[in-house]
Amino acid sequence: MSFENDSDRRASSGPVPVRPWGHPDAAPIEDAPPPPPHRASRRKGPLLSIAFFVLMLVLVGGRAYQDLSRPQAWAYWKDSYLSPSMTASLVQPAGAGADSRVVLAVSGKIGPAAASWFRSQLDGAKLQSGDTVAFSSPGGDVGQAIVIGEVMRSRGLKSAVAVFDSQGRMRPSYCASACVLAFAGGTVRIGVPGSALGVHRFTAEGSARDPVAETQRTAGLILGYVTRMGISSSIMEAMSATDDIRWLTPQQAIDMKLVTDPLTQR
């Protein structure tokens, strides 16, 4: 029988690894099971995403509500998407040959989004330089009318004041207030017998902070525009004479160079 103490067993089994602490026979640290996942950290990501989405929805929705709550913004949105204030149709004038050019007949009040609508109508009609746009309108937004006139001039289109019946026969009509500015954009401005052009004084809206300054700014804008269109500055005198519509005689429209091709003289 032999006796073997602990030191003998350790000596026979080889060197024992030295550890900084703990029993030499303890399991390696890397073999310890990983700690359970922290459930709160899993919820933190989705909760932050939801909170961020709600915050953005409140901010964007609140801004959109503020924008649409303004009368001007709502009017523009309505005129753009719900019910445009103007209508348009392509007309083949009666009595014209098969090779004659069509006319785009535009009627209605010039709304706050009329310029964008007008561009889309021209693109859809595929009008070319030298074609005619016939207006019939009581007026409306001055700024939109000026943009319409600028678009007319940039595309080389003629302008007239007329409507057409179901057989394509041209009938006289009227173009007043801001409509005259749209009409002024024509490279050739046709004077249709019986049609009327009406002007009046343009004033600032009641919402303007300084109505006098805004009126002066509008007058300067109109004067610069009609001058570029080749119209006499005397039209400003006719406009400033009255707040009511002043219907120009055919000769007055010719003298002001507002009409450049009077059909009455043919």
Description:
With 266 residues, this protein is of the alpha/beta class. The chain folds into 2 domains: 44-83; 84-265, Alpha-Beta Complex (2-enoyl-CoA Hydratase, Chain A, domain 1). The chain contains 9 helices and 10 strands. It has helices at 6-12, 39-69, 71-82, 114-125, 142-154, 178-183, 211-228, 234-240, 250-255; strands at 86-91, 103-108, 132-136, 158-164, 170-172, 174-176, 190-191, 196-199, 246-248, 261-262. Strands 1-2-3-4-5 form a 5-stranded mixed beta sheet. Helix 4 packs parallel to helix 5. The longest helix has 31 residues, at 39-69. It is globular, with a radius of gyration of 39 Å. The model has no long low-confidence stretch (mean pLDDT 81).
Topology overview:
Elements: H1 6-12, H2 39-69, H3 71-82, E1 86-91, E2 103-108, H4 114-125, E3 132-136, H5 142-154, E4 158-164, E5 170-172, E6 174-176, H6 178-183, E7 190-191, E8 196-199, H7 211-228, H8 234-240, E9 246-248, H9 250-255, E10 261-262
Parallel strand pairs: 2-3, 3-4, 6-8, 7-10
Antiparallel strand pairs: 1-2, 4-5, 8-9
Helix pairs in contact: 4-5
